[in-house]
Amino acid sequence: MDREGGDLFRALGRYNGSLGQADYPNRVLATWRKHWDYPIKKAVLAQKSVI
């Protein structure tokens, strides 16, 4: 991340050895969003309804 100035997309490409190609970073980010992404709006609304 430091080498890429905080750019996750480029850091994933560098990690995989495919810097400049979009396939690997796109697949990693799509999988992350599918399994672990949690929408901020829902989290904030759920928290406010509990308070």
Give an overview in words.
The relative contact order is 0.11. The chain is mostly helical. It is built from 3 helices and no strands. It has helices at residues 8-16, 23-35, 40-50. It has one domain (8-50). The model has no long low-confidence stretch (mean pLDDT 83).
Calculate the mean pLDDT score and round it. 83
Whole-number tally of structural domains: 1
Rough outline: flat
Q: Beta-strand percentage?
A: under 5%
Helix content: 55-70%
The whole-angstrom Rg is 15 Å
Total E-strand runs: 0
Low-confidence stretches: none
How many DSSP H or I helices? Answer: 3
User: What does the main sheet amount to?
Assistant: none
In short:
The chain has helices at residues 8-16, 23-35, 40-50.
Offer a few descriptive terms.
single chain, mainly alpha, 65% helix, 51 residues, flat
Write the layout of secondary structure elements.
Blueprint: H1 8-16, H2 23-35, H3 40-50
Helix pairs in contact: 1-2
